[in-house]
Amino acid sequence: MFDLATIEKFEHIATPFYYYDMELLGRTVDTIARLSERYGVSVHYAVKANVERRILETINIRGIGADCVSGNEVLRALECGFPAERTVFAGVGKSDREIYDAMSAGIEAFNCESLHEIYVIDAMARSYGMRARVAVRINPNIDAHTHKYVTTGLFENKFGIARHEFNALVELLGRCTNIDFTGLHFHIGSQITEVSDVYALEARRAAEIVSWFEGRGLVVANVDFGGGLGVDYGNPDGNDVAPFEDWLRTLTSNFPRREGQQLHIEPGRSVVAQCGSLISRVLFVKSGETKNFLILDAGMNDLIRPALYGAYHRIENLSSRFRKGFSEMQAYDVVGPVCESSDVWGQGRILPMSVRGDLMAIRSAGAYGQVMASRYNLRDFAPAVFSDDLDSAPRYVDYFNPGR
Ligand SMILES: Cc1ncc(COP(=O)(O)O)c(C=O)c1O
């Protein structure tokens, strides 16, 4: 991902920053758009993974829709050019204001997660003299075999409507006068790597549930399998584009789609994770009692996944590529500057001998990175820098060598 000319440009940019490889993003989105057409499955990008304007615009121009989980995400998607009729709104807790704004904008559908929510949307639509399109998220009780914090399709999770409410749901939909039922929605988790097993199970379970509802007179015109496709955090260059084709083949071959039924997916992570890296500098090298520490200027406030989920991100020393000859390797605990013991990028990472000022890349940081950043410790936000616009990035100021 990083050629020497790019790394040389990084030398002049203030760290930490998020670097986005726009060529890779374009190639990823082109792949999805082509497969979407070939398999007849429509795609909505899960905006929660990354909301940078340039990223949203790049995705939108390929005809992909937006899948949002808050009112502000809906507004952001619309602002960045996604048409309302390609924008859906999911989430277990939509506020009245969020519902009102999205309904007024005429979004494609609300993905509703409880009977109570359907009731409220119908009542609000009636009192404002509007109509709302509603898809219903079902909890299919499927184990996605992923981290428990990103598992969403089990009965113990707060998402979707459970089987014991199916009869009540049919009855409620029959009574609602201001909503149009558009279909069923599923999303069982994130960073799913057992693609053929887990998604085959999801598609077969969805087929059973769809036929149960159609047997009771509901027309399930749309079936949305959610997102969740995993990426290779261990080998981002070897697998820079996620296995979208395996995913689509598995879903479509395990779901007997009937005439006129539209299938959907909502990938987030797999669209944007690999095009992003968090670029940082080594501030200090410290020899501890039992280990060596590399202290970076990027911390858990910039990218919280390692501290939050114990997530693995590959770490590379970019500056070492300029060093001639043999570079001695060494084990480091790579850490950030935030005053928390969980602010650790990786323990015992074997890296080329590193020195103060070296540029480091924390890879696969494009999804659930910048969007989850905070100003904890009152640190600044790391800005976004795009590969095709490196010259407008904030300049590095060398306070240590003011004359340079
Ligand atoms: C409803 C919904 N759809 C899609 C996604 C996207 O998931 P991922 O980024 O794993 O593809 C999420 C994220 O958890 C979600 O909550």
Fold and architecture overview:
With 404 residues, the chain is of the alpha/beta class. Helices cover 29% and strands 21% of the residues. The longest helix has 21 residues, at 195-215. Pyridoxal-5'-phosphate (PLP) binds at residues 46, 48-49, 67, 69, 90, 187, 190, 226-229, 266-270. Residues 46, 48-49, 67, 69, 90, 187, 190, 226-229, 266-270 line the site of pyridoxal-5'-phosphate.
At the first level of CATH, the class of the largest domain is: Alpha Beta
CATH level-4 homologous superfamily of the largest domain: Alanine racemase
Q: Average the pLDDT over all residues and give the rounded result.
A: 95
Main sheet: strands, sense, barrel: 8 strands, mixed
Q: Work out the radius of gyration.
A: 23 Å
What does the oligomeric state look like here? single chain
Q: What small molecules does the structure contain? A: pyridoxal-5'-phosphate
Helical region count? Answer: 11
Straight-line distance between termini: 29 Å
**Low-pLDDT residue spans:** none
CATH architecture of the largest domain: Alpha-Beta Barrel
Beta content? 15-25%
